[in-house]
Each structure stands twice: as structure tokens, then as C-alpha cells.
Model the fold of this input.
Amino acid sequence: MSAADELHEFHYRLPQRAAGQRPGSHPGSSLGAGQEFVSHMSLYDRPDPRRLDLRASVRSTTGDWLVRVNRQRVGVTVQLLVDVSASMGFGARRRKIDVAADFVESLARSAFRVGDALGMLAFDQRERADLCVPATLSRGLGSVMADSLRQCTPAPGGIEGLEDALQQLIGREALVFLVSDFHWPLDRLGAALDLLSHAFVVPVIVWDPAETEPPPHDAIAPLRDAESSVRRTLFMRPKLRTQWRDAVAARRAELDAFLSARDLRPFFIHGAFDAEAMSDYFFEATA
Done:
């Protein structure tokens, strides 16, 4: 059984109402053929005899025939923003970009099941037009997106690439998954995220165990920065391992605080994507 066959769908739902007329699974703001009762209206004002409410009409003090008015659930556009910079090409057992591809494939299956259109934008130090997929409702779209990510060659990146890719999403209402290791300075990230004020954004932070946990034994460790290719040699010892773990914890706390200040909650992927954990993320968001 391949890794793709072992992927599972996850359940997601917007915690807020979305505009749109296409039927789907998310709470909508438009009136239609849904199950959420809003009010009664006169049959003359809303001529839809299929929704005639005889019991309410009998009780009406005005003598009007009343119809039930419901709010319908709608489908939304789901947009992926995937970082394909050089640091995403790192990984001890599997590259982070391969783990991100697993998530993309699972998301595509989940989106097709609930009738949401899915699109993808990718970036390194600029937008990667060769990896752009317009938002479409298609069963086989996930495999195409995931394969293109697995086969791409990560290149040096930066926050400029994210800013470039975001230009296509400004002012659009959507569910946006921003997939990256977030190894950027945070001073320009806030302004970039502000461009997605119309969207519900899920920061998906992909880390590899080899970058969060230092080597267990004392030894000389040759290290290379994935983005700049700068090499350093360190002698791994207990004090350095403690500093390594403290730096990882501090970075995670910094990201949590930074994103929480913008009412965003990060979802961490540590080595492998867990569909059940992603379902729990949305259950907590909509609770």
C-alpha cells in the first residue's frame, strides 16, 4: 500500500458564515433551501408554496399564508499557499515538502467530499507560476497538486515570495491554508497576513524532528543552512543540546503569540501529517 493510499480525509468547516449561492457544507449568509430556520414571511412576499407552513398560517393574526424562510449552507473556495523554498527541502527521513504534499492530497479529498473548489499557489523568493492550479472542483486534483510538489526542486526563498503570491487573493473570501516552516523574520509577516483579512487563514507549520531535536550523542556536527548554504561545525554537548531545545521552544512560543495577536491559531505538523488532529483543530475552532 502506498503512502497516498494511507492518507485519510479530515473534517473541516468554517467557523463563520460565508457568502455564496453554491450549496455546500459551511454556514452561509444567504437564504435558500437549507435547514436553518430564519423566520416566516408572507407567501405574497416570498412566493414559494413548497415551504408553506400551515400551522404557523393558522396562528397568524394577520390572516396571511406564511412560508418558512431558511438559510442555506454553501460551498467555499479553499486556497493553498505552499512554501517551496529551500528550507522545505530539508528532512531526515522525508522532506518537509513531501509531508506538505501528503497534507495537500488529504485536503483535496476532503474538499471534494464536501463540494468545495480547491486551488493552489506556491512560492519561494517569488510566486511559482509553474505550480499554480486555479480553484477547481475535481476528484483527481489532489494527486496532481501533490505530485507537482513532490517533483519540484526547492529554491532559495523569502517573505517576498509570499507577498507576491498573496496579490492574487487580496479581497477574496476563502479558506486559506498557508503551508510553510515559517522560518522567516516576523517583522514583515504581519503586513502580509493583513492582505488576507477577507479570508479564514489556517497557518500550517511543517517542522522536521531533525531540526527540533538535537543529535543525542556528543560529537562533531557539521551543519548547513538550507537557505543560504552557509556551513558551520559544532561540537554537540549537553549545554548545546539544551540551548537547541530552548531555541525551538522559544520560536514556537513566538509564533503562537504572533499569530494569536491576529486571531490565528497555528496547526503544527511534526514529521508526518495527522488527519485526525486536523479534524480536532476545526472542531475546536467551531465549538
User: Anything to note?
Assistant: The chain is about 30% helix and 25% strand.
